[in-house]
Predict the structure.
Amino acid sequence: MKKVVIVGGGISGLCSAYYLVKEGHSVTVIDQSDITTGASFINAGYLTPSHFIPLAAPGIITQGLKWMLNSSSPFYIKPRLDFDFFKWALYFRKSATKHHVEKSIPILKELNLKSQHLFETMLTSLDFDFHYEKKGVLMAYSSSKNEAEEHEIAERAIKEGLDVTCLNKEELHKIQPVLSDHVIGAIHYKCDSHMTPNHFMLTMKTWLENNGVRFHTNQMVEDFTVKSNKIVAVKTPYTNFEADEFVLAIGSWTSALLSKLKLNIPIQGGKGYSMDVHRPTGITIPTILIEAKAAITPMDNFTRFAGTMEFSGNNAIVRKERVEALANAVKTFYNDIEINDEEKAKATSGLRPVSPDGLPFIGKTSKYTNLTIAAGHAMMGWSLGAITGQLVAELVEDKKPSVNLNPLAPERFK
């Protein structure tokens, strides 16, 4: 049995704790919040084998440049002097190639499929109960340009063996009549499934506590104690935590903390927004509104409206114009569904940890033999939570990982 400290109480951190406990290890989780907020609680809850195209892909930069200075656009970059962001953007630009996309597709598909299976196994293990449905995800579009692009991706998905159906306007409105006439069709990725993240996180945390995991919340790790090529302890303002192994799963704060160890792990926080509607909406199938970059999910007794991407630094500021843009997209894409002022006032935000190449960082570092990194999952953080946790446990136990981790190496940007 090893003594393991996990820094970070998001989905990657909790799933890592779950699989480490299953292997008999003693686990402590440290988090800078009270583990009730952030991207792991407010995301769309998708498990997405359909998301096999990395964010760093040809065309994304051109589209981003058109939107970047518009604070209400689906993709927004706040103008600021930030050397780390500029460096990250250069890495992103170098990664956004067809060659990179082709190399990434089998990796992301394998990770997503294995993670989905692990979540299903977690549910059938009866450790704890949680909401899980496999209705697929609709990629709904309102322009012929996006129709052509989405059909091209769908053809590739079919070649990759995924369960996919292309729906025309009549077929789409038959299975999801609440969509407006503005929507002209969709791709139905029947291979996808969804959950209710905030419910899962709280239930998982309770299970972990009942199984011996110690949580230290509202404590920010500020530094490390190092001897030779090993970390001995992490330091918070209150105490030091010693362990045999350390797992860093702190998402968008990864780069800043690891700079203290002279490690370059480039991650930027991509802010997403979320609103919950606790009244009937008629929405029964999870749907991504392509033009608005919004994700709509029928969850456990409520509907979640989430999405957009904002790079403005690591903060929780909720920009009213972005909330309004998301609400307006809902009004445009759906019939008789309008997010009211009270619901908009409760909008929240969370930071997705975005790597420059659209692949997560999962693995050991060369400098420190007992440090495992699990971060940089971007919009797939929830979907890849279970496989990330399993891989972390395998690395801590010095087992052969169930996935080839070379493409996910934490120190691949030098």
Summary: The radius of gyration is 21 Å. The chain has a mean pLDDT of 95. Residues 236 and 250 are 14 Å apart (CA to CA).
